């Protein structure tokens, strides 16, 4: 029996997944954080935590694959700015998603020894953005160039270098 057959509120799970997607896309959603937290908590309580967790991983992966394409397509002159902005947007979304799924972290994640929500999402960032061959090469060369300029006394964007270092999440 699948989740759809087992629970008449299956559409609520899709609403949570849609809301997570909307958070990443900054397009808003029709449910409050409290409603989303209650709904996701109900699924975890009803032993469907795996469905919520795997949905989060799938949505995050798909979103970050698109982010990677955007960063890869950015011009060299604004590569760090693009990467930094995407990192800040991701972290903002992650805070909101973490609030919605905090009950899942406290129960399902702990009981099943899964990776906590914020950690798994940041690992997906690392795997899809930082470890992307195109981005990794550009990031390394851009940071080395910024260091070279700084050592030569030429103004470098220290703020962006700092954010790009923060975005280099190590598992």
Automatic annotation (TrEMBL):
SUPFAM superfamilies in alphabetical order: Cullin repeat-like (SSF74788)
Cited InterPro entries: Cullin (IPR045093), Cullin_N (IPR001373), Cullin_repeat-like_dom_sf (IPR016159)
Gene Ontology BP, a term: ubiquitin-dependent protein catabolic process
Domain Cullin N-terminal: 14-162
Source organism superkingdom: Eukaryota
GO MF term (any one): ubiquitin protein ligase binding
Family the entry assigns: Belongs to the cullin family.
Name of the protein in its database record: Cullin N-terminal domain-containing protein
Organism: Lactuca saligna (Willowleaf lettuce)
